[in-house]
Amino acid sequence: MTRDHHESRSKLGSAAVRSWRLGVVAAFLVYGSALTLVSTPARAVPPFARQTGLACEACHTIPPELTAFGRRFKLSGYTLTTRPPLVQDVDDHKKDTLWLTDMPGIAVLAQMGYDHYNRAPPDTGQPYPAHAQSDTFQFPDQFSLVYAGAVSDQVGAWMQLTYNGQAGSVGVDNIDIRYSDHTSDNKWVWGVTANNYLTFQDVWNGIGSYAIPNFNTVTLSSGGVAGASTSGPILNALGPGVVAGIGAYVFYNDSLYFELTAYHSAVAGGGSPVVDSVSLAANGGALDRFAPYARIAYERDWGYHSAEIGGSALYVNWIPSVGYISAQQQLAANAAAVAAGTPGTPPYTPAQTFNPGAINRYTDLSVDWQYQYNGQHNIFSFLGHVTHERQQNSNQLVAASFTGASTPIYTNPTDTLTQLLVTGEYYRDRHYGGLVSFTRTTGTYDPLANGGNGSPANQYETFELDYIPWLNIKLILQYDVYQVVANNQSPFNLSNASFPNSPGFPNIRAGNNNTWVVGLWMDY
Amino acid sequence: MNNLGRNSVILALIVLGVVFTREAAAADALVPHDESVYGVKALVDMACSKCHGQTGVSISPLFPILAAQQPSYIEMELQLFRQRSRGDPHARAFMWGIARALDDDQIEALAQYFSSQPRVSVRAAKDPALAAKGKSIYENGVPERDILGCIGCHGPNAEGIHTFPRLAGQHRDYLAIQLEQFNGRRSNGQLRESEIMHRFTQNITEDEIAAVTEYLASK
To answer: Is domain B128-217 annotated with CATH 1.10.287.1080?
Structure first.
């Protein structure tokens, strides 16, 4: 799961539901289920190399960033190989009816981290001066088993099972199953993808689940301390345990890409296949009906250079997880209380409710870009995206037109959010290198949704140094520096409802969230 | 353990037993792979075409055009890849692995397949003056700096012969990278093995590489 994936969860619900992680814990307690929401960065995996015989650098500049050939490999359904299938059967028309490789593409991915916060965040349960421990090992931060590779000669899959150190549980993670075919001259490649993470299917690295930087542990920008995270567009928040989608794509002449995918609610951890108020609480909300996602990109490769410019559009009907109770529900609950012989105090205090019609509508428009120089000794990339989001809040939940018996959730009928991510990378001989990344988010002021003065703004940089002794082992030193962390995004802030005991914290600054990360990533 | 639990375990064991028995039977029943089934069409489809195109006409200039290439050259290179004797970076990253499972018959068949594909139609030179200079280098070399003309081995129309590859119509970037790797000056040591090419590219300049590749790409 990328940082962005975590970012917008808090934004999706009310102030009362800041933390998806708390939600996960709640789900775990309610269901006693190990199937909680987890997700990890997906990377290059050795099974691809074992299947194809290609070295990592054929498909990756530095994992997980793809080269032009890597994009082609993914869009061809992960099927490339020259190894004869171990088992093959054909029908009367000489068409394959069975095609099994001689080895299943299983990999282990592991990620360890050590995080040190600039300042110890407040204790979620105790008043100041109590505070949390400010540095921890994430050991493992994430540990995954992945199947990656061909399933038949035209079908391939990435299927990941992950132990998430923060959730403390094992769950189904990223999945992408593809069917792919091409014209006889190979100029047109097309395919179908079924996946559970919007943007996981993408092949460029300026936006979405594979956006660079991609090493995320528990910094504020990648999910943060429990109860806090930086805000971002919903585009990056629809991941495993929340959605699943089926889409079709076409890639022409290694340059023009077009994709159309429709996502639908796929909430994990519930006791039944329907989404109800409990699963809303666990996941920070749920998708309503189908969310169409369109993606277009143009790439041009010359010599060691590759450049891409792309755009995407997403429309989401989102049922927020909010503490809303309608007057009708209140009446019914009170009537039930009277019938039970306990009238008086309202017996029904909803934490989350599922209300027909209480739906927020998001429209996300993005432009992303990527330039790569993938030379024999030097690798340079410059990539990023700008995403503009328009969020039309449900009339039922907006202060001016609020219809409930509890408190309204949003100040504005329409909120907007704009996020900019710019990243530059340099690596020498695929052994040493690093990156600098800048993220800035701004938006309309909505005090009810965001607390304080209502600003959802954040601004931070990530500095990373990498040492890659082998291509499947990476040692990482990262420093995140925050200039702006507005209102509820900050664990230190008085208005953050997840930290009701934090009043009294003196001298709060965005820089309190600065974080050192020492990381180890490896796969085999 | 209550009855329900015990019964469940017994049931699970029975099911597992049945599954394993069925699996074993299924594995025996399947036809083992016949090497001949994995012929040229499947290889081109599953592997070669991803970079070199279905008919040997690659889109990316990093990968050479193979259509109408000399069959002996393709065969020789595939054998070099398979025995890991050609060590330029792209050979290592891509072709060592791709060629590792090929047998001699497959190599020969692939060479025949690609060499018999129609040659690619070429664009006109973007810079005719540069191409003219390239033509002169190709035909006459640069005698004062001990660079022989390419024509002697690669033929009057750069069509190649036997193990000397066709150069006409090849991607300009690909040719330039190969010349740099033979020369080794920019690529930090001679990366592509060939005693002949090492010798003739020893003194070649970047301008001359640009000229001769412009000429060949448009020929």
So the answer is: no
Give the pLDDT confidence of B137-156 residue by residue, as tens digits. 999 999 888 888 999 999 99
| Chain B CB within 8 Å of residue A80 CB | yes
DSSP codes joined into one string, B16-39: HHHHHHHHHHHHHHSPBPPGGGS-
- ipTM exceeding cut-off 0.95 for this assembly: no
Domain ranges of chain A: 3-92+103-523
Contact flag B101-A182 (C-beta cutoff 8 Å): no
Nearest chain A Cα to B40, which residue?
A82
Q: Which residue out of A71, A88, A101 would a mutagenesis test of the B interface target, given it has the greatest number of B Cβ atoms within 10 Å?
A: A88
Cβ-nearest to B59 among A80, A153, A253: A253
d(CA A98, CA B161): 42
Whole-number Cα distances in Å, A494 to A411, A443, A444, B218: 19, 20, 20, 69
What is the model's pLDDT at position B32? 41
3-state DSSP call for residue A367? strand
Lowest mean pLDDT among A152-166, A374-388, B25-39, B124-138: B25-39
Which of chain A's residues have a Cβ under 8 Å away from the Cβ of B50? 69, 72-73, 76, 80, 186
CA distances from B115 to A303, A412, B55 (A): 24, 68, 10
CB contact under 8 A, B35 and A84: yes
Question: How high is the pLDDT of residue A348?
Answer: 55
pLDDT digits over A333-392, tens only? 777 777 877 766 555 555 555 555 688 999 999 999 999 999 888 999 999 999 999 999
| The pLDDT of residue A21 is above 50 | no
CB contact under 8 A, B100 and A68: no
Would the CB atoms of A87 and B51 count as touching at under 8 Å?
no
A313 forms bridges with which residues in the sheet?
A: A294, A365
Testing the interface with A: which of B43, B48, B50 to mutate, by most A Cβ within 10 A? Answer: B50
CATH 1.10.760.10 holds for B35-115: yes
pTM: 0.84
Cβ contact A217:A141 at 8 Å: yes
The CATH class of the A3-92+103-523 domain is: mainly beta
